[in-house]
Amino acid sequence: xxxxxxxxxxxxxxxxxxxxxxxxxxxxxxxxxxxxxxxxxxxxxxxxxxxxxxxxxxxxxxxxxxxxxxxxxxxxxxxxxxxxxxxxxxxxxxxxx
Length: 97
Hints:
This protein is α+β, with helices and mostly antiparallel strands. Helices cover about 25% and strands about 30% of the residues.
């Protein structure tokens, strides 16, 4: 291993040790499929089998937010008998993209 690799390994180990202290802090994760404005009269009309149409095109990635801040984008997948999310993009410093 080169000196640079050794230094990176030591730095990574130190960062991981620092993270041990916060690993059990709970975070609220929200998968945001879309947003819309709805009038109260339309909200009151909602019943089973009602459909709320979103403006987001089918197949477009959606935001994954932690504590209200977007941190990634994902797509819906099927995992055995449940829905899941495949992460397709992770936020880089300064925003998604």
